[in-house]
């Protein structure tokens, strides 16, 4: 019996989900969820075939014919701006024999020609060329019916492009819900918007995709130990508990969450993430509300996840022990490859109209801290690999992981000006419990 059939007929993966549902109610989860083949197959079927998944930022395809190849689960899509300026996403599979028609990850093209038999498609997906078409097909072939298959759903929010494989998925607006309020903090600091600098970094980790999403949705606690050396080197604030001081916010029922962190007590840090005055003036003019300005003024570090697998990190951090901290913004995608294996996609973004000197300083900070070989990035990857290795053993099925932080002694902050449920301390795990509640809801649907 196949793994897929087992998962649908009540195999070990189903038992794990039943156990996870019981345990989550008391702030626990079974350790095996991070390396179970049946769970992975269910995630492909129930989450990644139905969710809205981040594909790209519009600045990656600014001109007619610009394209990038992106993925949802196991499916490959050509995301392109066609000759009329419309953004489209075509399933990357020839309609004749199924060969991928685009094998370059990015470029500019007016047409795509399949290397197998030469069927040729315009960049709007229309089939326009079939070698020896008259001789091979006579009048049988209707080219209009055999264009590239479009992605079922495609939409944007403030330059962020999302796609869904489910034609019946709720709108992107509904999917994001109140998370849009927080996305505005990053995407609306400037009327010019954000731009991606360079191609996204990509690397493989022998770790489950949920670990990246879990870490960013609410785990400020790990900075105390995992990133302790960065504090000692002067790349992070001198207080090892610096990530504790802030708000722990989640959007109920959606799975989204963020940690909104300010300066530690007795360690003065500049407001607004330490952005230069030009950007601070701009955000005050472009934010949609005064509440956004009040929240942003107190921020130095923000980590968050848009369910299921897009994370955002906007932090003021040192690129070395000599230069002062510089703010940087990165989007990261935890792309599932196989049980216990993911590909990380990491974009560096900055305001289009930011000063050139700042763009370069921010880029260098990103590269040295959260780029492919960044010091913070290596810390996290080692933890996630170790968790996934342990999760693949027999004992992991008996082990219960603790998600009870903040469960009894923290009450929601009634003075928080933004939407969602906020707790006045970022050492909490309400965000993770909300994330896994949504995860279970979709897997059991």
Walk me through the structure.
The radius of gyration is 23 Å and the shape is globular. It folds into 2 domains: 112 residues, Rieske Iron-sulfur Protein (3-layer Sandwich), CATH 2.102.10; 268 residues, Naphthalene 1,2-dioxygenase Alpha Subunit, Chain A, domain 1 (Alpha-Beta Complex), CATH 3.90.380.10. It contains 13 helices and 21 strands. The N terminus is likely disordered. With 445 residues, the chain is an alpha+beta fold. The protein starts with a helix and ends with a helix.
**Helical segment count:** 13
Low-confidence stretches: 1-9
Question: What is the radius of gyration?
Answer: 23 Å
The CATH homologous superfamily of the largest domain is called: Naphthalene 1,2-dioxygenase Alpha Subunit, Chain A, domain 1
CATH architecture type of the largest domain: Alpha-Beta Complex
Spatial separation of the terminal alpha carbons: 23 Å
Number of domains: 2
Oligomer: single chain
Task: Give the biggest sheet.
Answer: 9 strands, antiparallel
| Number of β-strand runs | 21
Annotated CATH topology of the largest domain: Naphthalene 1,2-dioxygenase Alpha Subunit, Chain A, domain 1
Q: Whole-number average pLDDT?
A: 94
Structural class: alpha+beta
Q: What is the percent of helical residues?
A: 25-40%
Beta-strand percent range:
25-35%
Level-1 CATH class name of the largest domain: Alpha Beta
Shape: globular
Family: Belongs to the bacterial ring-hydroxylating dioxygenase alpha subunit family.
Domain Rieske: 53-163
InterPro entries: ARHD_Rieske_2Fe_2S, RHO_NdoB-like_C, Rieske_2Fe-2S, Rieske_2Fe-2S_sf, Rieske_N, Ring_hydroxy_dOase_asu_C_dom, Rng_hydr_dOase-A
Protein name: Ribosomal subunit interface protein
